[in-house]
């Protein structure tokens, strides 16, 4: 059987780092150890290797995410690649995966993976996750499923997956939904299908979007600051089903009066934010004021989506419609 042409993009992260045996500190190496190891995986696929940058994932910004989008589209136009695997640090992996999911219109599989243990630690999981990801990117069943995240023998959607533990190798989970497939020694198996197919055409990531977490006793001080600092949008991780302390209402009004979209998610990791409660600061009042309720995204992904929305349209109604998908 003819091997698939797979683009492997290394971006850095723990998967490419080494542990200092004397101190236990994990840090980037001058040369990415995965680059040479990837060349040894030619039995799995016809591999093209790119390394556009070598960064820990806290250093990744939407600018780097946009570069990855352009790199993938360039190779698809030039080389007719049949799949993509991206190695990435785990701290912001879900945000990069979701950004690419929303901004690349591709039928071929795009898989993002990483590692919780550096390349020279006992039990290092990076190479295994990379092999699993190449297998997923090479299988026809992975087509038309959007961007996938593969670690620890599980296949997750970019929309639902999140990092749930600071150090455990099974950190990536999809609360409420679970993985959509598994990787075994015998093959790649999907048992669920994604229901949403979203794509937004953008040519920049220049907008500024803030992310806040609501708390007991919260007031409008930071909301006024966001307005005065000329942010273009804000996402708030609200209480419960989508409620805020009453002292925030004047700040919410100030943002909306300045045409700054306010998107609400829940700070709970299960369930979705809805306009249920009608007391002062409750979801119904917030909805009536013009706050946008997100359909089940966590805060960091809602921020990515709002960033993309602001780059693709100036119409707040269209942005609201994005969050109802």
From TrEMBL:
Reaction catalyzed: L-asparagine + H2O = L-aspartate + NH4(+)
Boundaries of every L-asparaginase N-terminal domain copy: 5-192
Lineage: Bacteria, Bacillati, Bacillota, Bacilli, Bacillales
Enzyme category, top tier: hydrolase
Domain of life: Bacteria
SMART domains: Asparaginase
The enzyme's E.C. designation: 3.5.1.1
This protein's name: asparaginase
């Amino acid at each position: 059987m003819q091997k698939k042409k797979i683009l492997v993009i290394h971006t850095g992260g723990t998967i490419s780092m080494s542990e200092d045996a004397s101190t236990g500190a994990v840090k980037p190496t001058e040369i990415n150890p995965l680059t040479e190891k990837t060349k040894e995986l030619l039995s799995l696929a016809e591999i093209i290797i790119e390394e556009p940058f070598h960064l820990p994932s806290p250093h990744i910004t939407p600018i780097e995410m946009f570069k990855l989008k352009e790199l993938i589209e360039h190779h698809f136009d030039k080389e007719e690649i049949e799949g993509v695997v991206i190695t990435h640090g785990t701290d912001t992996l879900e945000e990069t995966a979701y950004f690419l999911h929303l901004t690349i219109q591709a039928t071929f599989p795009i898989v993002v993976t990483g590692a919780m243990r550096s390349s020279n630690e006992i039990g290092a999981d990076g190479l295994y996750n990379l092999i699993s990801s190449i297998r997923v990117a090479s299988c026809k069943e992975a087509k038309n499923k959007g961007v996938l995240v593969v670690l620890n023998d599980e296949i997750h959607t970019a929309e639902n997956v999140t990092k749930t533990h600071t150090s455990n190798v099974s950190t990536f989970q999809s609360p409420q939904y679970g993985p959509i497939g598994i990787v075994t020694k015998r093959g790649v198996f999907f048992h669920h299908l994604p229901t949403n197919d979203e794509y937004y055409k953008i040519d920049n990531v220049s907008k500024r979007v803030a992310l806040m977490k609501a708390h007991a006793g919260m007031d409008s001080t930071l909301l006024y600051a966001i307005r005065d600092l000329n942010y273009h949008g804000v996402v708030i991780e609200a209480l419960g089903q989508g409620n805020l302390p009453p002292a925030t209402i004047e700040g919410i009004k100030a943002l909306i009066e300045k045409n700054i979209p306010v998107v609400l998610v829940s700070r709970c990791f299960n369930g979705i934010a809805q306009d249920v409660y009608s007391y002062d600061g409750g979801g119904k009042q917030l909805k009536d004021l013009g706050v946008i309720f997100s359909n089940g995204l966590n805060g960091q992904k809602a921020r990515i989506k709002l960033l993309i929305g602001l780059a693709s349209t100036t119409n707040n109604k269209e942005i609201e419609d994005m969050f109802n998908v």
